Amino acid sequence: MIETGVKALDLLAPVVRGGTVGFVARPNMGQLVMLAELMLRMKKRGFATVFWDPQSDISGVELVQEQSEFSHSAKEDVYQQIVQLRGEKDILLGVDRSKVLSGELLSLRDRLKEVGARPITIALVDIKCEAADDDNAYGPLDTLWRFDTDLISRGIYPAIDPIGSTSTVLEGAHLDAVHLTTQQAARKLLRRYRELRSLVTALGAEKISDSDLQLYQRGERLEAYLAQPFYVSEPYTKKPGEWLTLYDTLADVKRILDGEMDTTEPSELFFKGRLEVTS
């Protein structure tokens, strides 16, 4: 996997090095902000970042352009740029779904098979948001990030669906045992929390058992913890972007799962980085 420093992504649906990640979202759910943030974070990791510009006037494209080291609209220019860079660095290539549908991405990948050197990781977005209900929006993917309407409505970002988002890394063959165990426990808790949330919202917390109330409250804390400020959003949120190592994320999530944060209000965990470690 490639660490992004984004808690929700690295825990629940990691990026596969040399693989393809697909974004599935409705309008105004932050997919282009996510791609811009990914470009910025991968530059920090020493990746070369290339954006295959679809030349769209949709809001957010300019942010991706700004955060990409190289931006080209013509397939031949993208190809030549990758050939020039690929011997030196891993590459993150951002591509719109239109290039998948036109067959241009497949053609580019076929040509690049003839070029050796380091991996190309591809991030696919759906700028027109035409495939939000399509279970096979891009064809085969190594990682799927499905954006969640409920999280958006409550101002929780990144709005990655913890149940619907997944990665082939999570099949276990290439995943550390601690990561796999923690990820599975976190997903199970968040699934139960979501089931209970509609009941609590409608009838109140007193209508569920004490054991379910404990799960609900821990799920609420975990959901709050997975919210995270982005570097590209600093001018708007007035909060500095946060980068957490996978080690720190797993340690924090385990503390929440084990009940160490049961006396902490969810608001104290929301939109922050590492949990404070007390002696």
UniProtKB/TrEMBL annotation:
<keyword id="KW-0813">Transport</keyword>
<feature type="domain" description="ATP synthase A/B type C-terminal">
    <location>
        <begin position="175"/>
        <end position="248"/>
    </location>
</feature>
<dbReference type="InterPro" id="IPR050053">
    <property type="entry name" value="ATPase_alpha/beta_chains"/>
</dbReference>
<keyword id="KW-0066">ATP synthesis</keyword>
<dbReference type="InterPro" id="IPR055190">
    <property type="entry name" value="ATP-synt_VA_C"/>
</dbReference>
<keyword id="KW-0472">Membrane</keyword>
<dbReference type="InterPro" id="IPR024034">
    <property type="entry name" value="ATPase_F1/V1_b/a_C"/>
</dbReference>
<keyword id="KW-0067">ATP-binding</keyword>
<dbReference type="InterPro" id="IPR020003">
    <property type="entry name" value="ATPase_a/bsu_AS"/>
</dbReference>
<keyword id="KW-0406">Ion transport</keyword>
<keyword id="KW-0547">Nucleotide-binding</keyword>
<keyword id="KW-0139">CF(1)</keyword>
<protein>
    <recommendedName>
        <fullName>ATP synthase A/B type C-terminal domain-containing protein</fullName>
    </recommendedName>
</protein>
<dbReference type="InterPro" id="IPR027417">
    <property type="entry name" value="P-loop_NTPase"/>
</dbReference>
<comment type="similarity">
    <text>Belongs to the ATPase alpha/beta chains family.</text>
</comment>
<dbReference type="Pfam" id="PF22919">
    <property type="entry name" value="ATP-synt_VA_C"/>
</dbReference>
<keyword id="KW-1278">Translocase</keyword>
